[in-house]
Amino acid sequence: AQTVTQSQPEMSVQEAETVTLSCTYDTSESDYYLFWYKQPPSRQMILVIRQEAYKQQNATENRFSVNFQKAAKSFSLKISDSQLGDAAMYFCAYRSANNAGNMLTFGGGTRLMVKP
Amino acid sequence: EAQVTQNPRYLITVTGKKLTVTCSQNMNHEYMSWYRQDPGLGLRQIYYSMNVEVTDKGDVPEGYKVSRKEKRNFPLILESPSPNQTSLYFCASSFLGTGNNSPLHFGNGTRLTVT
Predict the structure, then answer these.
(1) Which of A23, A109, B19, B27 ranks highest by number of CB atoms within 10 Å?
(2) Close Cβ partners of B64 (under 8 Å, ≥ 6 residues apart)
(3) B65-74 pLDDT, tens digit each
């Protein structure tokens, strides 16, 4: 079974600075997808960014980018120019490309605080 | 507006009193799923459904039931709730896209407390 580990329960960053959230995963599969979700206090689960394992190029969405290291099974999220609205729980998630159950395996989450 | 709607948003109940959390999506998604979120554990899948009348267990199905009589609805049923089912619950849906790349759309969560 796949596992996803987020080793940082909490992180803080100064507004306008850059922060990197860590995520590692364990799998024996070669074809899969990785996601970062944001959960603000409103409890919504918002998709931030996704990465296909077969793509070598790191995904980027505006101020959000990932560092995908397939051999190391690492998938970190970098937030540039942090804003107060970035404060939230962030979850890393894995999905097998072959899983009929379409199941996402989530990490335990990282709470990000943004200091003004 | 495309959305997943789950109700209620908050629910407090007592041990053993049957309850249902409703979930409805208006995006014609084939796939629907229930997750529970607990501190430090992230979200864990309870049950999922690939289509009408097709349901299967996720990682933590004990104590839960689901049904999928219509494509848009996927209620979560707790026949005899216990305090260890106190949690935050999410319904999610998606298309069954090629290579499982279709993103999951989540409801806004139901905070359940069982005393």
Answers:
(1) A23
(2) B34, B46, B47, B76, B77, B78, B85
(3) 999 999 999 9
